[in-house]
Specification:
Strand order of the largest sheet: 10-15-14-13-11-12
Order of helices and strands: HHEHEEEHEEHEEEEHHEEEEE
CATH topology of the largest domain: Ribosomal Protein S8, Chain: A, domain 1
Helix content: 25-40%
Distance between the termini: 43 Å
Number of helices: 7
CATH architecture of the largest domain: 2-Layer Sandwich
């Protein structure tokens, strides 16, 4: 079966397909639910596709709030009814001297990764423009809290918050319809941000672009559904839907776009 599944996804996604298959088989064999780490939207799409191939299992995603980008999943037998508490997600606020210092998503992310915590151990990092919060696996939250005392040169501390205290994120995705001659990484960046193909190619090759939170230096990388592209200094793009092709064989796309 895996050989048939592999052909629908990129080669670099095969290890995640193997992992997802292991999760599904464990639920089948143990007849008990399993909780994953945080998944990016593309991983969630792959997992959902695989679980749907098995008519006896179900799944739910949750990332700490309804609009979360990165979410954990519970895969479970039909008899089971998971609750939000079972996703084991803790909300923390980064307390720092707001009047005298400034934090950024990149600095917070870098600090978290520097503690040795894997990216799939924490979810979204959100801000209202001044305050910052993040979602952590409850299983490793105490470790992270004890590790982080500074972000850059700024003294900070992490304080747990109730879900009723979640910030309203400042950034909002704008949905745009467009057409594109190809789904190459450099082509889509050039099209969305109205820059030359050569400039977008140079940005990718110089390490200024990430796909699904991983640096990608290949301009000819072909994007697929729900991939998220982060471009330093420009913003982010998510490929929401491919709705067909025009008479000139261009792709009709619906994109989520964040502009800085």
């Amino acid at each position: 079966m895996l050989a048939n599944v592999y052909q629908h996804f990129r080669k670099d996604e095969h290890p995640f397909i193997d992992l997802s298959t292991d999760w599904i088989e464990e639920v089948e064999n143990q007849y008990a639910p399993i909780l994953t780490d945080f998944l990016d939207p593309r991983q969630a799409f792959i997992l959902e596709s695989l679980v749907r191939l098995n008519g006896d299992l179900e799944f739910k995603f949750y990332g700490g709030y309804e609009e979360a980008e990165r979410r954990r999943s519970i895969i479970y037998p039909e008899y089971y009814r998971p609750t939000k508490e079972e996703f084991n997600i803790s909300l923390y606020e980064i307390v720092y001297p707001i009047k005298f210092a400034k934090l950024s998503h990149g600095k917070i992310l870098g600090t978290l990764l520097a503690t040795g915590v894997r990216r799939d151990f924490f979810g979204d990092i959100i801000s209202d423009g001044e305050r910052w919060q993040l979602f952590l696996k409850a299983e490793i939250a105490n470790y992270v809290v004890n590790q982080i005392e500074k972000i850059g040169k700024i003294s900070v501390r992490l304080e747990e918050r109730k879900y009723t205290d979640i910030l309203l994120p400042k950034d909002e995705w704008i949905f745009e319809q467009t057409t594109a001659s190809s789904l190459r990484l450099d082509n889509l960046i050039a099209s969305v941000y109205n820059i030359s193909r050569q400039r977008s190619k140079q940005m990718v090759e110089s390490g200024k672009v990430k796909v699904n939170w991983t640096e990608n230096v290949h301009p000819d990388f072909v994007l697929d559904l729900l991939d998220i592209v982060s471009i330093r200094g420009f913003g982010r793009i998510q490929l929401k839907e491919i709705t067909g092709k025009t008479k000139k064989e261009k792709y009709r796309l619906i994109l989520g776009v964040l502009r800085k």
